[in-house]
Amino acid sequence: MSRPELADQGGQALSVGDLSRLAADVLGDIPFPALVLEIPSERIVASSPAAAQLVDPSGGMIVGHLLEEFTTDHPAPGSDLFAGGRLNGVETLRALRRPHGEDLQVRMWIRSFDDQPASEFVVVVLAVPASSTGALEPADWRQAPAIVGTADASLLVERISGDAEELFNLPVADILGRSLLTLVAPEAVSRCLSALAEASASHNGVTLHLDIHNGNTGPPLACEMLILPLEPSPSCSFVLLPIAPGLQDGQESDDLSVILLRLGRAAAVAEVARDVLDGLSTSKIPGLSQLTIRELEIVNRLRRGDRVPSIARALFLSQSTVRNHLSSVFAKLGVSSQQGLVDVLRA
Predict the structure, then answer these.
(1) In the structure, what pLDDT confidence band is assigned to residue 248 with cuts at 50, 70 and 90?
(2) CA 186 – CA 108 distance, rounded (Å)
(3) Where are the domains of the chain?
(4) For the structural domain made of 141-279, what CATH number should be given?
(5) pLDDT per residue over 86-118, tens digit each?
């Protein structure tokens, strides 16, 4: 898939028409509900097929219309929340109008194209309950690395997925109990605190770019971080998505497909964080912090009543791969069967 940049070869900003055409090309291949909006009007500039079906199930044309024509609540926050570059995205709840049924509540992850507050456009990924039509569906892009965890009201890391060992070059046991702020580069601490404050005040998730420590001596690693507020404030869930080395230093801001894919991945992982980490106790299930994000996704689906064949289809994995992941989960949590795992989780 080509990756159009948001400026022409002369470095000039693209017109709305040019952006619409480029965004339409990219969103046409995106497997999850995603939009490009012009702000502050929230006029829909481009839409993925999944978003068009979700926003207007009747099959009408949504591009060129205002998002509020399809919702029953107020417009989402605009670019003012990205002022100063401390945040590059926010989460908000919206209600999509359903003429012949109950309105559909969705989470919208709104992401700027860059860290400049004057941006006239935003990217939006829609996350809906897994039981609803149009829910985020996994695909190859979901194989991208991601780390999820929680921090308590003192910002000490309580839980973190096993993938963190590779990211931080530290055993999970050495990460647990540390301040979340010690994991980020010193120059990013103030932005991290600002994001935590915004998440606590708005009760919605936020996203920001920051560098994290890669072990005790390694160079900092660029990441996109999602912060999801918990009670009591400022306890939170967090998601870290490493940025490929070739896309560091803000270069990814010019690549719409990369932004969309990472935001889609982030929204999906955020749902796992809410469903699993926020609801399970590490003190009662000590091995929980050893699970990888893939294992957490499988555990979450098992909790909801899914079985191996349906989990394999949903995650685009073979049944044998799902069973291999489950065997790893059994060993880490000290159980010997799927039923034993379900009993532990429900207890």
Answers:
(1) very low
(2) 30
(3) 16-136, 141-279, 293-346
(4) 3.30.450.20
(5) 788 888 889 999 888 789 989 898 888 754 444
